[in-house]
Amino acid sequence: MTWITCRSKHPKRNEKQQDDFKKNFAENAQSSLPATVKPENVEVWFQDEARFGLRGTLSRIWAIQGSRPRIVRQQQSTSTYLFGAVCPQRDKAIGLVLPVANTQTMQIHLSEISKAVAAERHALLVCDMASWHTTDK
């Protein structure tokens, strides 16, 4: 036995939806493409982003046993975001380190992905439902 940290599960996770997505991926992908696009000219890309940062931790001080003195604790935090995308079929990957995660930085990421896709090919991007993945446009 060893001491490990467990992976968390999102409270709205739906395993049936996830299984359906996996089973029907090829059909759904084909139906989302225009009829003029041939399946052999499509690259499937998978995209995600992650936040890396520094936040304050528990503050500890020497104090008399049994007392709980109040102290000022640093509350600031700093972080950066890593945007990444991979196309396993073509053995290609794109990664960007950006200061924030919003629709503008997502557009920068999409532009980099489009540069990696050959001119005669199309990219099908699989991403999660983060709010900055779409805009009102």
Reconstruct the topology from this structure.
Elements: H1 15-23, H2 25-32, E1 42-55, E2 77-87, E3 92-98, H3 103-116, E4 122-126
Parallel strand pairs: 1-4
Antiparallel strand pairs: 1-2, 2-3
Summarize the structure in words.
The protein has 137 residues and is of the alpha+beta class. It has a domain of 70 residues. 23% of the residues lie in helices and 27% in strands. The protein has three helices and four strands, in the order H-H-E-E-E-H-E. It is elongated, with a radius of gyration of 22 Å. 6% of the residues are buried.
The N- to C-terminal Cα distance equals 52 Å
Q: Treating each run of at least 4 consecutive H or I residues as one helix, how many helices? A: 3
Provide the helix percentage.
Answer: 10-25%
Strand portion, in percent?
Answer: 25-35%
Order of helices and strands: HHEEEHE
Number of strands: 4
Cα gyration radius (Å):
22 Å
Oligomeric grouping of the chains: single chain
**Unreliable residue runs:** none
Structural class, judged by helices and strands? alpha+beta
**On the 0-100 scale, what is the average pLDDT?**
87
Shape: elongated
Largest beta-sheet characterization: 4 strands, mixed
The strand line-up of the biggest sheet is: 3-2-1-4
Concise structural overview:
23% of the residues lie in helices and 27% in strands. The chain is an alpha+beta fold.
Features:
single chain, elongated, 137 residues, four-stranded mixed beta sheet, alpha+beta
